[in-house]
Amino acid sequence: xxxxxxxxxxxxxxxxxxxxxPLLERFSYDDDIVxxxxxATILWGVVGMLVGVLIALQxxxxxxxxxxxxxxxxxxxxxxxxHTNAVIFAFAGNAIFTAxxxxxxxxxxxxxxxxxxxxxxxxxxxxxIVAAAVTLPLGMTQAKEYAELEWPIDIAVVLVWVVFAVxxxxxxxxxxxxxxxxxxxxxIATVIAIAVLYIFNNLVMPASWTKSYSIYAGVQDAFMQWWxxxxxxxxFLTTPFLGMMYYFLPKAAERPVFSYRxxxxxxxxxxxxxxxxxxxxxxxxxxxxxxxxxxxxxxxMLWMPSWGGMLNGLLTLRGAWHRVASDPILKFFVVAITFxxxxxxxxxxxxxxxxxxxxxxxxWTIAHVHAGxxxxxxxxxxxxxxxxxxxxxxxxxxxxxxxxxxFWIGTIGILxxxxxxxxxxxxxxxxxxxxxxxGVLEYPQxxxxxxxxxxxxxxxxxxxxxxxxxxxxxxxxILMTWSKRPSTYDVPVYEAPALARGFREAPxxxxxxxxxxxxxxVRKIDVFAQLRWHRKWEGMPLVFTVLVLLAVVIASxxxxxxxxxxxxxxxxxxxxxxxxxxxxxxxxxxxxEGCVNCHSQMIRPLRAETERYGEYxxxxxxxxxxxxxxxxxxxxxxxxxVGKSLPQAIWHVRHLNRPTDTTPGSIMPPFPHxxxxxxxxxxxxxxxxxxRAVGVPYRDEDVANAAASARAQAAVLAQQIDAEKxxxxxxxxxxxxxxxxxxxxxxxxxxxxxxxxxxxxxPPVVTGGSQ
Amino acid sequence: MSAAYLLAETxxxxxxxxxxxxxxxIGIVVWILVAGRSGRWARDARIPLDDDKPxxxxxxxxxxxxx
Lengths: 771, 67
Fold this sequence. Notes:
The structure holds two protein chains of two kinds. By secondary structure, chain A is an all-alpha fold. Chain A is built from 29 helices and five strands. Chain A has helices at 31-60, 76-108, 115-135, 151-173, 182-201, 218-236, 239-253, 260-274, 289-316, 321-326, 328-351, 353-359, 363-392, 400-432, 448-451, 454-483, 520-529, 532-538, 541-565, 581-592, 607-613, 642-645, 649-657, 659-662, 673-676, 684-693, 700-704, 706-723, 734-744; strands at 16-17, 23-27, 204-208, 211-214, 494-497. Chain B is mainly alpha-helical. Chain B contains three helices and no strands. Chain B has helices at 3-9, 12-35, 40-44. Chain B is rod-shaped. Chain B starts with a helix and ends in a 23-residue tail after the last helix. Classes of the chains: A mainly alpha, B mainly alpha. Chains A and B meet through helix 2, helix 7, helix 8 and strand 5 of A and helix 2 and helix 3 of B.
């Protein structure tokens, strides 16, 4: 660590009067912490993308699930969340902190609020990443996308985020620049919104240190998840990166941002509109239609402010376009902003219900996400890294020519990733809905719509590998530069006056238009349009922060309150009853193995789906679903009614043991360990207790007798498997619980209606799907 | 024929709001692009270009704020 000869700004005896001017304070910037975050960005970028390439290979051939090595920790269902969390929270997260720590100090002309908090933030965040990398392959997951981390890690995330928030907002108090630059607004929005989103989507009831259940069920849980999920895109992958754009692009282009006024308009519209858009992830599901429609409309509106940001970025380069040809850093930024423009056009398009009916559950979504992630997020980060490196390590970049090489490898990698995956998404979506002349599904076997994608998946492996190669090239280049760093870094000391107390913003001037020349309201609009009121806000960080918080919270409540309050949206179904103890254990295994990453449990009311999967899913079927398991991608078929369509236990035993035995060509990983491992019957009661605490109506005796009840149901099911010439002795194996759960799925609607009792009771122990 | 009837029961409301909001949108775009790059905007936009000198540091002298 570098020694610093820095001065604390407040009460600094070194401050001295200079002539008749104000008292000057001396200060320096903490670039040591920026270097740390920068190197962490590169390290986790390599790790996250490496896992990405591995899971891309797994979709080509389940050989790469590595189960032949005896590993159950490396299947797609467990590694896919590791990939998404690593690239979002580790790679993009550390990049965000790099940008915020470097640029905020300079934009506010002050050091980070506390060097100690900076280091707690850095090491805390890295520990969280390591904890995620260990627990996700172990199957500890909350099963909600980008919110998989279990509750103890969630608490750590919130604590570290608070440290970051204090460190960041504290700078606003000690700043020496009166007015907050636009990048700072975007950082404020990030700090505030992510805190709100993360906390309220992760409210869970723990059953143990490593297992918990969402306090929300079914439709409500789905709503909360995509309110969070979409706004994680908004406030983790968009606003901080726009802040990054507003700082580093002017720096690299050496010219000010195109239009400050445009930045005001697009900042507030983004903050106001994004928060409504989440339900577009749930079109045609059991989510009430009003929410779906609202999500669609606000997504469409988002197109304009998003393009406002894009134009402000691209037009900043006016008069400097000739430099783009020779400067690979500007190339990275230009391509990044272009991808931002394409993704934010495609996003509204995909949120249109009729388009979404085709695109949802297919690779189209995956292609869309990767255009944004590899193009916008990744290339912004690379541009920033290359711009920062010579400044942070105070030596020229080791291999200048590699920067341009990285740009081209990365660009070709992106194209080779997204083009085949767009094609795969369209192909599969069209095959699913294709009917022949007789009005029968043209491709009734789901596997037909999978094997056709394998060539596309191979090309993706090539594209992803190229992108990873660029990342590694970047890492080597930065390490070589780092190794040539000076023995001690030069730490310049700056001087500036503190902000004076009792500051009064210049009064808002009167109308510029002469009286009686125009109607009165025109003069009022003219005064408003001078935006002096906004300039006032820019000098009042507390007010600004509170306004952002209000914008996010109020807009959220407009959707959240009716989702929870309108009972008519979720019609109860009398025959839908809570899962039996064995089925609860099976559902836990379903969550642990990450089945939800490839299988949906949500049949949309579209003819192609009801033909293929059966009766469409109803909101009332999910009232005990903590968390909801609707899924977002059908790499395999929907399972909402699998208990009806595949009611034979022996089929599931064979399928789970080796999927290709029942489904030639299947790319599903094998789960032979489920046939060997013994089920822990004694923890089922804990799970049911936690589920009861979040509203599932189990009685005391249900919880007390959980193990015995589960053993009884398992024994019956195992006998059945035995009779069907399956393996013997499955009655205490984990597979029996998972199969009990699968056989239950979708069968409640057909159960005979029993006379309702005062307190809801468990159904009698049934023999799975054999009834 | 009341205004409420016109707005709710005919397509008049939908067309009128479409025209109003479209005109407003065009107005905002023109306002941003035509007039957005002068005066105090130009000065604040330069904040990131200087790493150590505050652009609007103080207030007590009205010079710092009047422009």
